[in-house]
Amino acid sequence: MSVLGRARPVASDAVSTAACTHCGARLAPGQDRFCCTGCAGAHALVAGLGLSAFYGRRDTEAGALRPEAMPPALDLAPFVTLRRDGTRRLELVVSGLACGACIWLVEQALAAEADVLSARASLSARRLAVTWRGDASRANDVAATLGRLGFRVAPWSPACLRATEDAEGRALVRALGLAAFGSMNIMLISVAVWVGGDMGPSLRHGLHWLAALIGLPVVLVAGMPFYVSAWRAIRAGRPSMDLAVSLGVLATAAMSLSETVRNGPYTWFDGATMLLALLLAGRVFDRAARRRARQSMAELLALQEGLVSRVLDDGHMEAVPAEAVAAGDRVLVAAGERLRLDGVAAVETLLDAAATTGESVPRSFAAGQALPAGAVNMGAAFTMAVSAAARDGSLAAMARLLERAEQAKGRFVAIADRASRFYVPVVHAVAALTFLAWWGVLDAPWQGALVNAVCVLLITCPCALALAVPAVQVVAVGALFRRGVLVTSATALERLAGADHVVFDKTGTLTEGRPVLILQGQDPAALRRAASIARASRHPLAQALVRACPGAPIADGVREVPGQGLFQGAARLGSPSFCGLGAAMDGMMLVLRDGDAAPVAFRFADRMREDAAASIASLRELGLTTEVLSGDGEGAVAAAARQAGIDTWESGANPITKQARIAELRDAGRHPLMVGDGINDAAALAAAHVSASPAGATDLAQTASDLVLQRDGLATLPAAIRIARRAQAIARQNIGFSLLYNIVAVPMAVLGLVTPLIAAVVMASSSLVVVLNALRAAKD
Amino acid sequence: MDALIFLIPVSLLLGLVGLAGFLWALRSRQYEDLDGAAARILFDDKPGKETPK
Question: Does A119 touch chain B (CB under 8 A)?
């Protein structure tokens, strides 16, 4: 996806419809150039560095670069490495790095700092490496600069992408380069042999040897990825496509060598190397598409990964990874922070446990009650005693449940593997029979019989078949990626195409899963006033208020009473009791009391996603049935199901019953697609035929899912199913087409009519047809 | 036909030079960030301090 290839007229957009000068989001009435104060600050920073050229070039989604009002505070200093020459190096995952102008802006903005030696961003990996001379704590300044520009950063962890994957990918590209070099140069020599009928036998012998000289090393080295995989298949006792390829290529090379030695009319090195080049090309593209999906996945996880604040005996705090905390340690849970460990608090706490139980309303937990990991602190900051280390806690238990569910599901056999299981033995039997018929029955010399038999192997070598499915995969996965759907598993598209029933979680999937302000005719001035006070707080409700009115300026002199509310002079914003109005029914209400003016109440609720009903209607058009499966109470689930237009629903489900329901559906012969976001959905996601998680899902749910929807809303789900079905149809066409080719070509090979020229034409043209057909998969 | 004695080695040599160039580019990690490379060529200002490694 080159930047040139998808250039959108962003700059002109920014002028014609009123859009924020920095992030490009649509401006609300009354706003002049910027959608929020963060964007104004970012623009000033960019202009101050003399980098305004960025705005002429950027190609990012509207709103993607809006700086967060309260970037999460994370000390990056522990992630800095000291290098031998005394410089420091930090690697970061940068979210929002979406276009060439972004990497330019990031690199230039950091290079403008005097002590920064180098800054290099990678667009495909969203990865930034910065080196500088000086203190490790400068890392936080780097992150702050990027945060002010609107990029979110997280430390790059080795788990993001295993180093071996890089090495394997490079080995594959190297093999492709070698095979391409070999096939082109041998073709040069082969064409001379094919057309040079008047060529003397000694010259032909010389050219044969030359072809062998290039061909043998290329076949041996470039074919390595196939030989290794074929060897594994032999040891597993399962015939694979790679085994057929390896046998075909090696037999062709051996036969060509024997023809070279006895100076036969043709050698077949060109066919063998071309075959390798075509197959390797398919494999490289396949890998590129999957690597992109995996990297985006790693980026999501890196941004969610966080540290916990451990309280030391002397009262000081240190930030440590959750894995390092032992049972009995005390950790501080800030307001709005997600609990990463199970624990017990000495005070009453208010937690949003939507991710663990599916309840949509925050609930208070009495002092001493067990607090589940995964819940979000909606009240004041508190210290809790950790009751189990990460690997023994409830999250780990859920992960084990997920693992078992995956094992129980068994291995899905991809269509290409099913085809090769039938194809490979048949082809080898035909080749063997050809040899026996020519040598045993027709009394041909054994060399001639061998040539014909190997021709059968070469011409049936699943060139088109091996490209048929990966080419469609690459195109379809790329098309989905551009629509904001990450495909994390190799067989996900095939399974998605076969889904016939959709099971939705409620909280966070059908609904937004975070509090949203319900406007009840409040005075806009009061809303603006409340939002500007709320900017000082990290509390989820305050943040929801800020989201509802992003343009509000930051108020000065705000003091926070943790868990209760905010003061600014005579104005108070907080819980009803904080503003002197009596206790609230639940934790989903804020009141603004500005001096003597009448108090204004703001109610919040977990709102249905805007496109939920429309998406479910289009799923029904696609012939899928739907149901809701939630851990929330009966009333809330029934209401949400009715609103979304779903008739079947079940409430009060825990992770085990969710998984059981999926298993029941599978036993009934259905192919359920599970859509869920919570920790409590993870096992059901893993057990389902195919699974998806919406934007903002917990990391456990995302790991368990085959598809991750990155854009807000569910509208991409029906689109993904359409693309998957189309891709599947095209893959079937491609397989059918390559089989048809074989039905024509194999009898010719058996009869000994195939020359290297015909083999080359057949191979190249069938591959081309298959690849061109695959390109159609990108259409919605 | 004598020309072949020169032409074939010459063509092979040129091909090998190309192959060596490809392997060098691969080794120096120029294929790591193809999307970025496509965008970088459009930056017309001096390449400040951002050097690889």
Answer: yes
